[in-house]
Design goal:
about 260 residues; mainly alpha; globular
Length: about 260
């Protein structure tokens, strides 16, 4: 049951991304900036409704004892995202086919190196958007981080695997046309997905390393503070003991003098 719920959450996440892409495609003809802002609406919906996207929580896969469990979950989320985005794209063929087809064909003109780099940078931005939203909270600051980070993706032409799946669905017109491009389409989707994962993983790993370094530094500082406090406390006790011993000796001398 939990697996099915994960798939449904990912399916809805794919739909949210696809609707943001659809709005961006339509509005790009008027204003690229406005189109980019509406593209981010999909990520905003994912953050608000706590939906799943395959680039999220990737770092959990590499934690000890969690690899197999989280790798399986990642695959389910990826498939859910693909189905949600692809079916939304197919549903919007009558409205978006010419625009989506031109957009997708332009992707095939890009070099392999360019696609790899843009997909990695996209993964980094997605991590910033989603984790920034969670860390800052769902208020104005969190929403602003999410919207700005995700809007940079279309503004810079970065590649997001789930968005590309939507363009494939919306651009589809007949099997014969795609028969000549099917290999390129599959490679595009696979390589962009890998690039997104690599970008997310790099930023996530560096962020965790930074946090661990800060945590260990704070622990070291607290340990030194406790040690210093104990040392001072020990010195105070020693001084008190010496003072008490001195007072006792003075009393003993006074008594001896009086007896004499």
């Amino acid at each position: 049951m939990k697996t099915f719920q994960t798939f449904i959450s990912a399916f809805l996440g794919g739909i949210a991304i696809a609707l943001g892409c659809a709005a961006s495609l339509v509005l790009n003809t008027e204003s690229v900036l406005v189109g980019a802002v509406f593209f981010s609406a999909g990520f905003l919906a994912i953050g608000v409704f706590e939906l799943s996207i395959f680039t999220d929580n990737l770092g959990a896969i590499f934690k000890k004892g969690n690899a197999a469990k989280h790798a399986n979950k990642l695959l389910i989320i990826y498939l859910g995202n693909i189905f949600g985005s692809l079916l939304t794209g197919i549903a919007l063929i009558p409205k978006l086919q010419p625009i989506a087809k031109a957009f997708l064909m332009a992707k095939f003109e890009e070099s392999f190196e360019s696609i790899c780099l843009s997909s990695i940078l996209c993964g980094i931005l997605i991590y910033i958007a989603m984790h920034g939203f969670r860390k800052a909270g769902s208020g104005f600051t969190g929403c602003a981080v999410l919207v700005v980070a995700s809007a940079i993706i279309p503004l810079c032409g970065f590649d997001y695997a789930i968005a590309n799946v939507f363009y494939v669905g919306a651009a589809f017109n007949n099997i014969q046309l795609y028969g000549t491009k099917i290999g390129e389409i599959l490679l595009l989707v696979i390589f962009v997905a890998l690039g997104n994962l690599i970008g997310t993983l790099i930023f996530s790993a560096l962020n965790q390393f930074k946090n661990e370094d800060l945590t260990s530094s704070k622990r070291s500082h607290r340990h030194k503070h406790r040690h210093s406090h104990r040392h001072h406390h020990h010195e105070d006790d020693s001084q008190n003991d010496e003072q008490s011993s001195s007072e006792e000796e003075n009393i003993a001398e006074n008594i001896s003098d009086e007896q004499f």
